[in-house]
Amino acid sequence: MKTLPLFIDGHFTQSQADTFIDVTNPADNSVIARVPCATQSEMQAAVDSAQRAFESWRETPVSERARLMLRYQHLLKTHHDEIAEILSLETGKTFEDAKGDVWRGIEVVEHAANIASLMMGETVENVARSIDCYSLTQPLGVCAGITPFNFPAMIPLWMFPLAIACGNTFILKPSEQDPMTPTRLVELFVEAGAPEGVLQVIHGGKEQVDFLLDHQAVKALSFVGSVPVGQYIYRRGTENLKRVQAFAGAKNHMVVMPDANKEQVISNIVGASVGAAGQRCMAISVVVLVGETQAWAEDIQQALGEVTPGLWNDNQAAYGPLISPKAKERVLELIKAGKEEGARCLLDGSAFTVKGYEQGNWVGPTLFADVTTDMRIYNEEIFGPVLCLMNVDSLDEAIEVVNANPYGNGTSIFTASGAAARKYQHKISVGQVGINVPIPVPLPFFSFTGWKGSFYGDQHAYGKQAVRFYTETKTVTARWFEGDIPAGPNMTIHLK
């Protein structure tokens, strides 16, 4: 059985750990690898290496750091499909979905190649007589990232390329559920010419996370995951006086106005709700039907009923299995709760299986109508292929429902009315808004801007905000005296 290595001080090395975690194929729960829980000495070695490397890496010209990212994005594109196949095997994602995961990460690396302009400071001449003031953008030191299972390519690539391009060194703790994809990303980073010690990889669970949260050498930490863990990460990290950005859960609403294009709306609902088996923090899990659109429930039921999960290499499969038996058990428990609380179950995927892969973590598309805000299936993030339909009479009522929700990751409105769209985008208390776009994840020139209980911190992922998160601003006030300028025939000019 393959045991994933650690990556410390520029070398892949087998851990001396005595505790290992199985990596399974979600389609049948067969064990395909195992991952070690790094020891204290191994984690300390990673920190020591990152600290040493920082002293030289921070002095590396920004143009050289940018060229490293250019080489890296080229290698990622060259090996795009290979990475996607590894990703599909350990996550269960369809091949097309896996390729999208990889590509969205590549876009962030491309953005990191523009690091020189992103780190420019500001200058004001003559803030006082003969005094100039200017700012410098400088790296923090050792940074760390803790990434989730659902995007094992994209989310690590949200973190370490930008942090390293800014002049920091980085320690990555990828999800123990699908570590093979991040390992391949690191191999290509080494091939791109990354200096020894600039990137480290440790594996494990809570003990390894706590090490990073507590170690005083780690200056900033990025996290993506569930709400309880995100809150824990933020509290413990900030208690240790670190910068922390913690991206947590969501309950994303799509509001459908009566003037929306019905065919387009239903097509978008299907992909946005059950794509990736609903295991994404930007999935649409609630559709708010306004006025006459409440009659569309049966059409939505019919469209979702035509969706079939399957294996990663099945071209007819709409999505794959859930990541683990535990994840499936939780989704099934919430489906049961929805029925018991009085929601109308129009589609029930609880008993779905794939022939020959009955031991996999399969859940078919599931649809509830007449959902209310006091139900568990509304209040909890299901993280599965389950869609809730709610009914309201007006746009104002829809806005009220969405704003009352404790999460604020993403939302969308489908309408032909510019006035309705503008009112919605202005009034809604959600960080990422789509207008006739179901999943409004911004490209890397912007930032991933979840609000409320979906994010804990100040500066968000990628874009200019990530550069500010991974750097510190130094302001210099300088005065030079004209009387000190050398002059006369005895002045010597030295040229190098």
Molecular structure report:
The chain has 496 residues and is of the alpha/beta class. The chain has two domains: 6-249 and 450-478, Aldehyde Dehydrogenase, Chain A, domain 1, CATH 3.40.605.10; 252-406 and 410-435, Aldehyde Dehydrogenase, Chain A, domain 2 (3-Layer(aba) Sandwich), CATH 3.40.309.10. Helices cover 37% and strands 22% of the residues. The chain is built from 16 helices and 22 strands. It has a seven-stranded mixed beta sheet, with helices on both faces. Strand 3 and strand 4 (30-36) form a beta hairpin. Helix 2 runs antiparallel to helix 4 (95-112) and helix 3 runs antiparallel to helix 7 (180-191). The longest helix has 18 residues, at 40-57. The model has no long low-confidence stretch (mean pLDDT 96).
Nutshell version of this structure?
This protein has 496 residues and is of the alpha/beta class. It is built from 16 helices and 22 strands. It folds into 2 domains: 6-249 and 450-478, 3-Layer(aba) Sandwich (Aldehyde Dehydrogenase, Chain A, domain 1); 252-406 and 410-435, Aldehyde Dehydrogenase, Chain A, domain 2 (3-Layer(aba) Sandwich).
Second-tier CATH architecture of the largest domain: 3-Layer(aba) Sandwich
Shape: globular
Question: How many structural units, i.e. domains?
Answer: 2
Mean pLDDT: 96
Overall radius of gyration: 25 Å
Please give the largest β-sheet: 7 strands, mixed
Helical residue percent? 25-40%
Tell me the structural class.
alpha/beta
- The parts where pLDDT drops under 50 for at least 5 residues are none
Q: What is the CATH topology descriptor of the largest domain? A: Aldehyde Dehydrogenase, Chain A, domain 1
Distance between the termini: 59 Å
Strand content: 15-25%
Counting DSSP E segments of at least 2 residues, the number of strands comes to 22
Arrangement of strands in the largest sheet: 14-15-16-13-12-18-19
EC number: 1.2.1.27
GO molecular function: methylmalonate-semialdehyde dehydrogenase (acylating, NAD) activity
Protein name: methylmalonate-semialdehyde dehydrogenase (CoA acylating)
Pfam families: Aldedh
